[in-house]
Each structure stands twice: as C-alpha cells, then as structure tokens.
Amino acid sequence: AGLRVIDVSNPSNPREVGYYETPGYAYSVYVSSSYAYVAHGWGGLRVINISNPTNPREVGYYYTPGYAYSVYVSSSYAYVATDYAGLRVIDISNPSNPREVGYYYTPGYAYSVYVSSSYAYVADGNAGLGIYQFYGTGINEEK
Question: Can you tell me the distance from the alpha carbon of 31 to that of 41, in angstroms, rounded to the nearest whole number?
Fold first, then answer.
C-alpha cells in the first residue's frame, strides 16, 4: 500500500493524512528531515518528499540489485539491506539523484541494517550479525 502518513498528535485517535502509492511493497522507511527513504523490495530505494504531509511525492529513486528490505540513513548516506546483494550504500546528498558509492556482498541474505557512527550492523540471515565499516570510498568487514 506504499507510504502512509499518520498524524499521531492525538495517540488515542491516529489518522491518515496523506499517502504515496508505491508500485509495489514498501518494507522499511526511514524519515530524515523532509524526506522519507523507503526500502521498496524490487523497486530499490525510493526518496519521497514529505515536507507537505498531505501530499507526499517521489523525488528520486535508486534501483538496487537484490530485494531492498531495510534502510537506515546516517549523514548523507542511505544504507540498504538487499538480501542476496548484501549491503548497499547510497549517497543521498542530492535526493533527486541518489547514487551508489559502496557495497559489500554479505555471506548470507541481508534483511535489516542499523548504523552507528561509521559502522553498519547487518542482520544477515543464516550468517548472523555482520559488522561493516564505511570509509566513504568503500566498505570493509570488521573482524
């Protein structure tokens, strides 16, 4: 059903105020500033401007190899867990033109990602937890 914007100012009566219909399933969303970054299955990463919550609109996208299950935004990068295609790092400094700047093929299937400092923690299916460091020009696995 895409991205739904819910007004929760009255927790006992949440209500939908806007939506953006993505062409497929939306699996994960990360909101930063006036943008929602949506991990969108085979559609990759969708960038949606939510500055007007009643009328969200897509401003950019990046088709990832693999199935985009999870996204986490840190600084001007979106880290995307993409099952068999591992961890992808997308530069989102220009939201209308996101571009991949690094990747790491994880040994399992990357399903979820969390970032703290320059470290990305990836839930990697049967391979367990993978910890990766992004240097701005590439990704290395922490041993």
Answer: 18
